[in-house]
Amino acid sequence: MDRIPILRMGPYLLVTIQVDMHDRLALTLQDDLTARISETGARGVLIDISSLEMVDSFIGRMIANIAAMSRVLDAETVVVGMRPAVAITLVELGMSLPGVRMALNVEKGMNLLRTSLGDGDAHATPREGGDDGQEA
Amino acid sequence: MPESNAGILPDLLRRHESEILDEWLREIGSLGLRRSDVIREVDLRTEAKEFITALREAAQSGSMDPASPSWKGVREFMNGISRTRAQLGISPSETATFVFSLKKPLFNRLRAALASRPDELADQLWLATEFVDKLGLLTVEAHQRSREEVIQRQQQDMLELSTPVVALWEGVLALPMIGTLDSARTQTVMETLLQRIVDTGAEIAIIDITGVPTVDTLVAQHLLKTVTAARLMGADCIISGIRPQIAQTIVHLGVNLQDVVTKASLADAFALALRRTGSTITRR
After folding, report:
1. Complex ipTM above 0.90?
2. Domain count, chain A
3. Per-residue pLDDT at A1 exceeds 80
């Protein structure tokens, strides 16, 4: 059975969903990811769903769950690359994924992770993501 | 004389074309339908002449029913007249009276031709009345049709014009909403906004509702949907242009806008957006 690969990049884990998610696959990913986070002590998780074309309420809930679990394991999670059609579908399904951080693409997602973790190498990316935290 | 159901009208039209035309033009003048302010005398004359000619040609088919196929030319001609007159601001009743005024010259001709046979005259008059009435109604219908086309086109224009997404700054989009927000509009707005977020990589979208006349629970729900969808794409939304009255309504209705940043004016929202993107504006 195929699995969704989980790549390690420094203190971050990178999950790229390149195939259509079916329910079993989502459950496997949930197991794998939580295991990898505790194994590696990753501080940030980036989930790229830019290839995901179809979502239903189950997949929507899985995304929210995975994000919540990572947070419990003390890893910031950012979901990136949601397509417009997917976003509209989720909204129409009444799923706003509260508490999940979103970004437009991998680059912006990485910046978000770096700034929110207050990383030492944040200066390597001089731009963007700014001082969101200070804004009321 | 051939006696068909068309009566003697076709025959009269053929033999007395120019007399009928002259008399009709006089009649139009005396009824004050000349409208020399918008239609030139020459144009009116040409129009009337062409109309009579078209009538005569169509009448030769033997049928006096304007709905029949041989009258297609006349119908198109009348559509044209109604349309141009509607555009000139002439009322449909004036256009119809223009056609109805044809009755008098036609009746005069009939009376002259059938003076010795009153019974037949009455029949023929009835036929002629029916015929001219139908023509008049055609112009009214055509007038209405041309108005409807205009309305439809304007509606389309409004839908397209009312959902622009403009880039204010690098990474900042603005969405000035104008008019009522219904489900169809929301859908269009959402799709356009999300697509523009993808295209420009914007991180902040300002939804300005200055042009939205009323905000009820449904409109608020549509707004929140748009905000949520944008958030799922990684863009933050600021709602601006909330008038005092609308702020009161929102609170009275118990609409929860806690999770959304709201600003009174577009300028405030833009200033916040600039701060968030790390840009500053200084006066020189």
Report:
1. no
2. 1
3. no
Q: Which of B229, B230, B276 sits opposite A132 (nearest CB)?
A: B276
- Separation between Cα atoms, residue A107 and residue B256, nearest integer Å: 33
- Cβ-defined contact of B275 to A105 (cutoff 8 Å): no
DSSP three-state, residue A104:
coil
Contact A102 B229 (CB under 8 A): no
DSSP letter assigned to residue B166: E
Strand partners, A103: A80
Say how far residue B130 (Cα) sits from the centre of its chain.
30
Expressed as residue numbers, the domain containing A59 is 6-131
CB-CB: which of B198, B203, B277 is closest to A84?
B198
Q: What's the CA gap between B60 and B68, in Å, rounded?
A: 13
Sign of the Cα pseudo-torsion (B129, B131, B134, B139, in order): negative
Distance CA A30, CA A63 (A): 9
Residue A66 lies in a domain: yes
B64 versus A83: which is more confidently predicted? A83
CATH of the domain at A13: 3.30.750.24
What does the DSSP 8-state code read for residue B3? Answer: -
Indicate if the pLDDT at residue B199 is higher than 50.
yes
pTM of the complete model: 0.62
The model's pLDDT over A15-46, given as tens digits with 9 standing for 90+, comes to 998 887 788 888 899 999 999 999 998 999 99
User: What mean pLDDT is reported for chain A?
Assistant: 82
Average pLDDT over residues B156-162: 74
Q: What is the DSSP letter of B71?
A: G
pLDDT of residue B174: 93
Strand B166-169 with A44-48, pairing: unpaired
Hey, what domains does chain B have and what are their CATH numbers? 9-156 (1.10.490), 166-277 (3.30.750.24)
